[in-house]
Amino acid sequence: MDSDFPHNWSRVFITRVEPSVEGGRWPIKRTVGEAVAVVADVVADGHDKLAVELIHGPEGGVYQTTRMTLRYNDEYEAAFVVNELGRYTWRVRAWVDRFGTWQSEFRRRVQHGETDEVLRVELASGAELLRELADGAGGAKREGLLRYARSFERGNAKKALEAGVVHLARDCDTRSGAVTSLAYHADVDRELARFAAWYEFFPRSCGDIAGVHATLDDAARRLEGIRDMGFDIVYLPPVHPIGTTFRKGKDNNPAVKPGEPGSPWAIGSPDGGHTSVHPRLGGLEAFDRFIKKATELKLHVALDIAFQCSPDHPWVKEHPEWFRHRVDGTIRYAENPPKKYQDVYPLDFSCGDWRGLWSALRDVFRFWIDRGVRIFRVDNPHTKPLAFWEWCLGSLRAEHPDLIFLAEAFTRPKTMYRLAQLGFNNSYTYFTWRNTKHELRSYFEELTQTQIVEFFRPNLWPNTPDILHDFLVHGGRSAHIVRFVLAATLSSVYGVYGPPYEHVKNDQHPEREEYANNEKYEIRVWNWNDPTSLQPLFRRVNRIRRENPALHNLRSLRFLDTDNGNILAYAKQDGANVIICLVNLDPFAVQESAIDVPLNALGIPSDGPYQVYDLLGGERIIWHGARQRVRLDPGVTPARILLVLRRLRTERQFDYYA
Amino acid sequence: MDSDFPHNWSRVFITRVEPSVEGGRWPIKRTVGEAVAVVADVVADGHDKLAVELIHGPEGGVYQTTRMTLRYNDEYEAAFVVNELGRYTWRVRAWVDRFGTWQSEFRRRVQHGETDEVLRVELASGAELLRELADGAGGAKREGLLRYARSFERGNAKKALEAGVVHLARDCDTRSGAVTSLAYHADVDRELARFAAWYEFFPRSCGDIAGVHATLDDAARRLEGIRDMGFDIVYLPPVHPIGTTFRKGKDNNPAVKPGEPGSPWAIGSPDGGHTSVHPRLGGLEAFDRFIKKATELKLHVALDIAFQCSPDHPWVKEHPEWFRHRVDGTIRYAENPPKKYQDVYPLDFSCGDWRGLWSALRDVFRFWIDRGVRIFRVDNPHTKPLAFWEWCLGSLRAEHPDLIFLAEAFTRPKTMYRLAQLGFNNSYTYFTWRNTKHELRSYFEELTQTQIVEFFRPNLWPNTPDILHDFLVHGGRSAHIVRFVLAATLSSVYGVYGPPYEHVKNDQHPEREEYANNEKYEIRVWNWNDPTSLQPLFRRVNRIRRENPALHNLRSLRFLDTDNGNILAYAKQDGANVIICLVNLDPFAVQESAIDVPLNALGIPSDGPYQVYDLLGGERIIWHGARQRVRLDPGVTPARILLVLRRLRTERQFDYYA
Of A271, B111, B238, B350, which has the highest C-beta tally within 10 A? Predict the structure, then answer.
C-alpha cells in the first residue's frame, strides 16, 4: 500500500465541460456559422490563478487554441465558430498559471506598501520563474523574458507590473502540470437543417382530373407555386412501385377495388423496389427532371425512405433470408397483435446476412444521393435497430456531410432522443398533440431549456397524412391558422402537409385520428392557386420567417407569462431582432390577457416607449413598460407575430409589406 | 467504408443509470443498512419486452442479480441494501426478452380470438424458442423446458399462457445480445457518518481556574456531561505541542505576552509535532486515558488534523525540503498578500520529495488510528492538492473502512463538492452564513434535491471557534435556539462548538466575524452544568433526534410553503415517522404564517383530523386539512419540532417526556 503513489498527478481538475451530451458520449449539433460557447469548471487547491484554454477545430484539421476567461464560481468560458460541414472536436486544457499568480501577488504586495527589502526578494522569485520559461522558449521571446528577468533582478518593480511581461510569460508557458479534458464533438450541418420550411404533397395528386394518376412532371409544374409560398423543401412520400398483394383500398379498406392506386408505403412490385420510381409517376427519368426543376427554383427535395417491403418487392424473391419466417415457411408480415398488416413485410435486421441487408439499405440512400437528393425523411426508424442507424447515418455523413435525415419516430421520448443522438439531425415531435398552453409551454421548455436542445432539432408539423388532430377538426380555419403559426415560429424548422391543410379540409376518419378520403389510398385533385385558401398565410409567414433572424433559431425561445390560459405568448431574438408571438389557443372566442414583456432580457429600455408591429396583421402599437394587455379575436387575428422596435419609427418606415 | 460494420451490436441501449456522480466517475455514499435504489433507462427498437437486471455486491465479494421492474417511460428500477462497510459495485444488464415477448403476443392473439390454425403455428414458434433455451440449460430445468415445448407442439395453448413457463424461460435465459452498463460504485460508511451530533471543546479550558492549563484528564471528567446532553462525538482542536516563534497572543495579537498559551493550530515545538501531545495536556498517556474514558461512555473522539507547521516543528529542521523557500534561503510562511501568517509554515506538497512528505502525512493519520481514533476533522483541505486527498483517504479507507473524515473546507462550492467526491465523507457547509428563509431553502434544496445529495454529507455547525455570525451576536438567546434547532434537524449530522454557545457568549471580535476572547488564544473556564444555559435544549433536541428516525436522514427534507418570510417550515420522514419543524427566523418579534402541509406526500389522510405534538414545547394540537396557521414567539417558542400522528391519541399516550 505504501508504494501505491499516483503515477502522475496535477493540482488542477476539470470537473465539467458544457455543452455536452451524456458526458461527451454523443456530439452536439450545430450549423455552419453558429458558435459553440464552451464552459468549463476548473478547480485546484489554494488560491493560485489558473490558465485554461480551449483547443478546437474540425476533426483531422488544424486545431486552434483560445484562452478561456474566468466568469465566476470557477467557470471558464470561450467560444468558437464552426465554419465547415462535418465534425468538430474540442478539449479543455488547464494548469496553474505560476507567473500570473506571482504577478498578482506581487501587485498586492506593492499596493499594500510592502518593504523594498521584501519586494526585492519577491522580484528575484519572479525572475527565477521567467528564467525557467526562457529555458523552453526561443528567439525574440527568450530574449524578452531574460530582459525582464534582469530588470526584476535589478529591483525594477514597475517592470514587474507591466501587462507585457505576463503576456510574454503566458506565450511561453510550458503548461507544466496541465490536465486535458476528454474530447467533445459537434456535428456541423448545413443551415437548412436548422432553418427550413417543408411542404409535403403527393405527386400523383398533382393532376387536374380526379382519380387520374399524375406524374412527377405534373408535380414539377406545382413547384413554382410552392416556392412562391416561401417553402424551402418539398417532401415526397415514397415514389416507388406499389405492391398489389393485400393492397389497401380507399381509407385503408382491406378490400381493394380495381383501379385503386394503393399506399405509396407498400413498396415494391415487379416494376422494382426501393431504387425504382413508379411507372405511373414517369419512372427515374421523370424523377431526374423533377429534381432538375426543383434545383432551378432553389427548392430542395426530401425523399421518404421506408425500409419495408410489399409482398411483391423484388427482395422477397431475391433475398428471402432478409425476412422473418414462420415455422410453416411463410414470411412474417408486420403485426402488433391483434393488428395485422399483411401488405407489409418488415426486414429482419438481425438475420444471418445482416451485413448484406444493411449494405443494401445503405445503398438505397446512396442511389438517391447520386441522383441529387440530400434530404431524407426516414419512416419509422424506431422499429429498426438503433445500431443500424448509428452505422448507416454515420458512414453516409462521413461521405456527404450535407445530408439531412428527418426521423419520423412517433414513439416514446427516450427512443426519439436516442435516434437524434446517434445521427438524425431533424426529428418529428409530439407538437401535433400539444395544443393547450400548459402542454406547449412545458414541452418546449423541455426541448429548449435542457441538454436536449444540443442534439434534438424539432421539426414541427401541424398535420401529416397520418395525423389530423381533433383540434384542427373542430377548430376549423382559426385552428389551422394558429397551429401553422405555432409550427413556423416555435421552432425554426417546420413542415406542413400542404394541400388539405391550406384548404382546411378537416374531415376526420370516423375511427382514426387521420384524414378521411386519405391521399395515402386515393388520388385527389387540389386547387394549387386559391387566394381564399391559407396559401397567402403560408406566403406571409414564410416571408416573416426569412426576414427576421430571431425566427432562424430555436434556442432563444422564451415564454412570457400571461394570465389567460388560452393565450400563449413567447419571444425569440437574434441580436437586435426581437419577435414576440401571441396566439389565441381558443378557436371560438375572443380572449384577452395581460402579458409580461421581459424588457431587460430582450434589451428593451424600461424607461421609455417602444413600438411593436404586427407583421401578420399590419397593426402598429406603442407600448410602455413590461405589463401589456392583448386581445386576440379568432375570427380576425387568432395570432400575432410582433416585431419589437426599441425606438419609435415613423409610419413610413413601417411599410413592411407595401 | 463498406466493410466497416460494427464488430458486435445489440438492439438494446442502456442510456442512463442513476444514482451516479459525474456519470459514474465517483462513488455515491451510503451507510450500512441503507438502500441503493437504481433506476436505468433502457431502450430498443420496436415493441419487444426487455429483460433488465441489476448485478450488485460488495467489491471483490459475491455479486447478486436482481431483476429490474419497468416503472414507466422506459425506466427500470431495483434496489438493494448495503450491509457491509467499504465499496459496493453495480452494473445494469439488459437484453431482449424473446420468450416473454412471444408469450405476451401469444396472449393477445388468444384474447382476440385468433384461429386455431394461426395459434398452432405460433405455438410451434414458441416451442422453438424453448428448445433453444433448453440447449443451454441442464437437469430439471432442461427437462421442464422440453416438456413445455412438447405440449406447445401438441397445440396446448393453455400451457403457453402459464406463469410457470415464462419463469422457467427467464431462469434459463442465455441473455443473448445483452449489453452491460459501466460499473457504478457506492462507498458504505458506518451510520455515524450520516447520523451524529458533534460537540467541540478545548480540553485545556476544562479546568476550574481561569488561565490555568487543564489536561486531557480534566477534559475526560467533562465527558459524562457531554454524553448526557446526547452528543455522539467529541471533537478536539489539535492536541499537539504549540510553537513559540511568532506565537499569537490574546485575540490573535501578534505581540504575545509571557504565559499566553498560543493557538493549537500552530503545531510543533521541540516537544514534538503531529504525533505528539502537548505536555501540558498530559502527553500521549493522558490522551490514551481520554480515549479509554470516552469509549467507556460510548462517545467517539474526533481529532483535528491540520497539516501545517509552526517554525518550531521538528520537520522544519529534519525535512527542510518539505517546505517552500525564498530565493534568500528562508522558509516561506503562509500568506495571502497583504496578509501574513508568520507563525505558520505551509508544507510543499509538490516538493521534490513529495512521496516522502505524503507518506509522513498519511502516517500521521495511521498513528492516531492506532491509538483508537476513527474520526478526523481535517483543517483546510482545500489548500492541499486534491490528488493528495484522493490518494491518502482512499488508501486509509481501504485499510479501515470505518473512518470518517470531515472536510473543513470553507471555500468555493465546486472545490467543496470535489473534496466530498474524492473521499471526505462529512463536510462543513455554508449553513453558518445562511440565515434567511430564502437562503436556507435554496441552499438546502441544492444539497438535497440534486446529485449533490449522493456524495456530499453536510455537517451543520451554527458556530465554530472561527465563526460567530452577526445573527447570533444580535439575536441572542432566541437566535441561538433557532440556529441550534436548524442545525440539528435540517441535516442528520451536525455539531456545535459548545461552551460559548450554550452560555450564549456572543461577544464578537471588533474586526472579525469570530468570538472575542477567543479560546484559540487563551484558556477559559466554563460552567459545565448550568440549568439556565442551553444545555437542557441540547439534551432535549438530541433526544428528539435519537427517538425519531425521520431526523436520521437528510434525503427526505422537504420545505413547506409559508406566507411569512420569517417562518421556515420543513418536513422529514422515515416510514410512518413524520416530523415538521417550524422556525421563527426573526429573533425579535412574534411571527405568524399559514403553512401548507403536503398531506399526500406525508401519508396523512386528507379527510379527517390528525394530531401534531410539539416535542420541544410539549403542546398538543389537532389539525384538519393541509392549510394551517402557526404562531411563533421568539421569547417562548422560537422553534417547534412537531411529531405528526396520523390518528388521534389520548393525552396519556403523549407523555413523551414524562
Answer: B238
For residues A477 and A329, what is the distance between their CA atoms, to the nearest angstrom?
52
Give the tens place of pLDDT for each residue, B137-187. Answer: 989 999 999 999 999 999 999 999 999 999 999 999 999 999 999 999 999
pLDDT of residue A203: 98
B267, B273 contact by CB (below 8 A): yes
> Inter-chain contact B327–A125, Cβ cutoff 8 Å?
yes
CB B604 within 8 A of CB B644: yes
Per-residue pLDDT band for B613 (boundaries 50, 70, 90) equals very high
* pLDDT tens-place string over residues B549-569: 999 999 999 999 999 999 999
Q: What residue type is assigned to position A475 of the chain?
A: G
Helix boundaries (H) for B449-534 = 470-490, 498-502
Cα–Cα distance, B655 to B230 (Å, whole number): 20
CB contact at 8 A, A455 and A462: no
For residue B400, what pLDDT band results from cuts at 50, 70 and 90? Answer: very high
Provide CB contacts within 8 A for A467, sequence distance 6+. A432, A461, A513, A514
Give residue B422's identity as a one-letter amino acid code: L
Instruction: Find cell 427512443 and name the residue.
Output: A415
Helix, strand, or coil here: B347?
A: strand
Buried b / exposed e over A207-223, threshold 16 CB at 10 Å, is beeeeebbbbbbbbebb
Rounded Cα distance between B139 and B158, Å, is: 25
Nearest to A268 by CA among A247, A289, A298: A247
A657: pLDDT strictly greater than 50: no
Of B583, B564, B560, B586, which is closest to residue B573 (Cα–Cα)? Answer: B560
What integer pLDDT is reported at residue A211 of this predicted model? 84
**Comparing A282-286, A416-420, A601-605, B573-577, which segment has the lowest mean pLDDT?**
A601-605
Helix/strand/coil (H/E/C) assignment for every residue in A537-601: HHHHHHHHHHHCHHHHCCCCCEEECECCCCEEEEEEEECCEEEEEEEECCCCCCEEEEEECCHHH
CA distance B16 to chain A (A): 8
Given A200, A218, A312, A379, the catalytic residue: A379
Neighbours of A461 (CB within 10 A): 22
- The rounded Cα B130 to chain-centroid distance in angstroms is 49
> Is B131 an 8 Å CB contact of chain A?
no
Judge whether A244 and A270 are in contact, CB under 8 Å.
Answer: no
Q: Which amino acid is at B178?
A: A
ipTM greater than cut 0.85? yes
Sheet architecture: strand order including B639-645: B558-560, B567-574, B577-584, B639-645, B609-614, B620-624
Contact with chain B for residue A328, Cβ under 8 A: yes
Cβ–Cβ contact B2 with A under 8 A: yes
Q: Sheet containing A35-44: which strands, arranged edge to edge?
A: A12-18, A35-44, A75-81, A69-70
User: Cα Rg for chain A, rounded, in angstroms?
Assistant: 31
| Pure H helices in A94-175 | 98-111, 116-136, 139-153, 157-160, 163-171
For residues A236 and A497, the answer to whether their CB atoms sit within 8 Å is: no
Closest partner residue to B337 (CB to CB) among A16, A105, A386 is A105
The question of whether A408 is a catalytic residue gets the answer yes
| pLDDT above 80 for A3 | no
Is B8 touching A (CB cutoff 8 A)? Answer: no
Q: What is the 3-state secondary structure (H, E, C) of B597-648?
A: CCHHHHCCCCCCEEEEEECCCCCEEEEECCEEEEEECCCCCCEEEEEEECCC
**Stretch 9-38 of chain A: residues touching chain B, C-beta under 8 Å:** 9-11, 13, 15-16, 22-23
The residues that bridge with B624 in the sheet, in sequence order, are B609
d(CA A137, CA A117): 30
Q: How far apart are CA A73 and CA B593, in angstroms?
A: 35
Alpha-carbon gap, residue A404 to A427, rounded angstroms: 10
